[in-house]
Design a protein that fits this description.
Helix content is 32%, strand content 24%. The protein contains 18 helices and 25 strands. The strands form four sheets. Strands 8, 15, 16, 17, 18, 19, 20, 21 and 22 form a nine-stranded mixed sheet that branches. Strands 3-2-7-23-24-25 form a six-stranded mixed sheet, with no helix packed on it.
């Protein structure tokens, strides 16, 4: 009898055991955790914005009681996407300018400017997104039409890559520029001894210096606009590649006030002043903002023939492109940054720029193994130089390959294309690769990043068999590149990038299984829900 009573008491005690209280449990999901083993799971629990348990639905429900239960009903969940290289603030400002993306001719550019001005009556018209490579006449436009239509209103419209702009005469006069104006680190194009209005790379600053600065109100609206776009597309962390101290401090103030929730890895625009400021201040880190890197420009862009090449361009035989930052200054920046705990992230497109920066990194780092210094883009690399990436982290943008494939071979020739957009080689050399978009140069959607990395095609399903498929990434590699490896590139792999105990509860719910669906259907996947710190933001 005593044994029966004890057994009943034991059973009663077990059944009455209190479950641990948490904020949220997610159940009945198809979860790709992206942990070291790339394990799958069904459920996890969240408390105070972090993941406290991962397991089966039964395990989580048996142990935890939650204020909110999210029944995923079999949908796929992955860690929140991280864009390892973008222009978040620039995307926000873009919403208030003339949108010139996807224009098919200069006539269409003109029409959009005219329509914009009818609605806005701006005192200085700015825009971005044109690409002469998408036009039937694949040549830089000139300013005559703008001069006729807008003789007294300054106009500066930037090419899609941000490395060339077209200015009308009113903008040129405002900047005080003539054919005799000295410049370096780029080009000011002339024709028959007259300015065409095209400025490439460093000389663009002559025009931009006279563009009215956005107000604080405009800046705040820009950041919030960009956040909404990113959350809707499943981005929970963005690496903004080149910010001023003022913008970084505005971002921090908005995040601290709770009005900006996205997490931002800020690359400070490199200058002597900015490096000195942060060298003294040190790394600045909160739950939502991480300031520990400097963004440096080595050269320009391939589309505007500003990328620095070892040999002349195949379609312009006397032209090599150019370094936009002098070689001695690049080394000076590297030495100053190496003396701090900050990371150096350098834009390098052409094979010459990549070689110069890889060699400079090697000399300055002197064998340091965990600096995580990055080459941003690594677009055209001499095959003989890939070995330099053994200690240098490649940060690339897969949609660049599918955007550029129509004309890149004409620019650099078949031989140099062997080292172009070589993501698999870069991954195999370093062991990891960080993936991003460079938006608004490319479209924001990380689903397009995933598709371009895996299928190496554009949205027109071209080319049918994929572009240079030997450098395609697997789906597992791609997901890692957009989550845990991107987090690693930010020194944040211990706090985000996977669905594991102790990490931030940043995750997204997809309506289709991105790891198994037919490749051509990846771009149409919908982001049903986005969570940052366990809080639903979409």
């Amino acid at each position: 009898m005593k044994k029966v009573i004890l057994l009943l008491l034991l059973i009663t005690g077990i059944s009455c055991t209190k479950k641990e209280k948490v904020d949220t449990i997610v159940i009945n999901a198809n979860i790709y955790t992206v942990n070291d083993n790339f394990d799958k799971a069904e459920a996890f629990a969240i408390k105070d914005g972090k993941i406290v348990a991962v397991g089966t639905t039964k395990e989580i429900q048996d142990k935890y009681a939650a204020t909110y239960v999210n029944d995923a009903k079999g949908k796929t969940i992955v860690p929140g996407f991280i864009d390892a290289h973008c222009h978040f603030y620039g995307l926000g400002l873009q919403q208030q300018k003339v949108d010139l993306t996807d224009t098919k001719s200069f006539d269409e550019v003109i029409k959009r400017i005219v329509d914009f001005q009818k609605e806005n009556n701006a005192t200085y018209i700015t825009g971005r997104g044109w690409d002469q490579n998408d036009w039937e006449v694949k040549e830089f436009p000139t300013k005559e039409r703008l001069d006729e239509l807008f003789p007294s209103t300054p106009i500066a419209i930037t090419r899609i890559d941000g490395h060339a702009l077209l200015a009308n005469q009113a903008a040129i006069d405002l900047a005080g520029i003539t054919v005799k104006t000295p410049f370096s680190g780029g080009e000011i194009l002339q024709k028959n001894g007259k300015l065409t209005g095209i400025f490439i790379d460093a000389p663009m600053e002559l025009i931009e210096a006279k563009i009215p600065k956005p107000s604080q109100k405009v800046n705040v609206e820009a950041l919030k606009d960009a956040e909404k776009i990113c959350f809707d597309l499943g981005l929970t962390t963005v690496d903004d590649a080149g910010l001023s101290i003022e913008t970084i401090e505005l971002i921090d103030s908005l995040q601290q006030a709770g009005s900006l929730k996205i997490r931002i890895y800020a690359m400070v625009s490199a200058s002597d002043e900015n490096i000195a400021y942060y060298s003294k201040k040190g790394i600045f880190k909160t739950d939502r903002l991480n300031v520990r890197s400097f963004k440096v420009y080595a050269d320009g862009a391939l589309g505007s023939r500003g990328a620095a090449m070892k040999k002349p361009y195949s379609d312009q035989h006397n032209h090599f492109g150019a370094l936009v930052t002098p070689l001695d200054k690049l080394k000076e920046f590297a030495e100053k940054i190496a003396a701090t705990d900050f990371q150096m992230n350098t834009h390098a497109i052409g094979d010459s720029a990549n070689y110069v920066m890889l060699k400079t990194y090697k000399e300055v780092l002197k064998g340091k193994k965990d600096s995580r210094w990055r080459i941003e883009h690594a677009q055209i690399v001499d095959v003989a130089d890939f070995n330099y990436f053994e200690n240098i982290l490649p940060s690339v943008q897969p949609t660049h390959a599918t955007s550029d494939m129509y004309w890149a071979t004409d620019r650099v020739g078949e031989e140099r294309m062997k080292g172009a957009y070589a993501y698999k080689v870069l991954l195999n050399t370093y062991g990891k690769i960080a993936l991003g978009t460079d938006f608004p140069v490319e479209k924001v959607s990380p689903l397009l990043t995933f598709y371009a990395a895996v299928a190496r095609k554009d949205l027109n399903n071209f080319p049918e068999n994929g572009f240079q498929m030997e450098n395609a990434l697997t789906r597992e590699e791609t997901l890692k590149g957009m989550t845990i490896w991107a987090a690693y590139s930010n020194f944040e792999e211990k706090e985000k990038g996977s669905i594991e105990v102790g990490k931030m509860a940043d995750f997204i719910v997809l309506n289709k299984n991105i790891m198994e669906i037919e490749a051509d259907k990846i771009p149409a996947i919908n982001i049903d829900e986005t969570y940052v710190g366990g809080v639903k933001v979409k």
